[in-house]
Amino acid sequence: MGRAIEEIALSKGYTVPLKITADNLEDFNTENLKDIDVAIEFTTPDTAFDNLKRLFENKIPTVCGTTAWLDKKADAEKICLDHGTAFLYASNFSVGVNLFFELNKQLAKLMTGYPEYTASLEEIHHTAKLDAPSGTAVTLAEGLIENHTAYTDHKLVEGADKLKTKSAILKISAKREDPAPGTHAISYDAEIDSIQIIHTAHSRKGFANGALLAAEFLFDKKGIFSMKDVLF
């Protein structure tokens, strides 16, 4: 993701004065951050919060796409506001996926009146994907649950046969195979037919484009934002 974002940023005429990886953590310091306009954070669940804390303490508006650390998100938002800067988190920055999030909510509203259909969610990612279910799948599950009266929570399960078991728990299946930038499918299955909506990413460029779009939006702002603020 970092390389994809850098490539697009440079093509748009931006500079990328600081790139931090596990190999140069000593460069992640106040001196090197002083001339940074916006940071984009894509790392790991174990490091995201500390990275964000340091960026906010240096008053750097930050876009974050790391998933599976959200138990600390409220703390990160408070630190951001306490230091008078800006924060935008998204589980997925693809414009298409964010449109898909809204489509999922609308379909859930329609389907809530038809209890004969059982909802389920399947996601497929590359084998280097660390979290399961993906952050995108969790966002989709939460959007469905908020708009469908039959579901109260979601759960990761193994085996396609378990997805269609009717209960108040939305079942999620996560597959890891290469190459697979990311596919998410929401299904509603009944005895007579099935309804399905699918988003498939063809490369990481869509995510990188969206992250850069978010960074452009966040420049010179203060507060907490989401991709809805950017796109709608």
Question: Would you mind describing this structure in some detail?
Answer:
This protein is α/β, with parallel strands linked by helices and 232 residues long. The protein has helices at residues 2-11, 30-33, 48-57, 73-82, 95-111, 135-147, 205-218, 227-231, and strands spanning 39-41, 62-64, 86-89, 118-125, 153-156, 169-176, 183-189, 194-200, 223-225. It folds into two domains: 2-93 and 205-231, Rossmann fold (3-Layer(aba) Sandwich), CATH 3.40.50; 95-200, Dihydrodipicolinate Reductase, domain 2, CATH 3.30.360. It contains eight helices and nine strands. The strands form two sheets. A five-stranded mixed beta sheet has the order 5-6-4-7-8, covered by helices on one side. A four-stranded parallel beta sheet has the order 1-2-3-9, sandwiched between helices. The longest helix has 17 residues, at 95-111. It is elongated. The two termini are 24 Å apart. The model has no long low-confidence stretch (mean pLDDT 94).
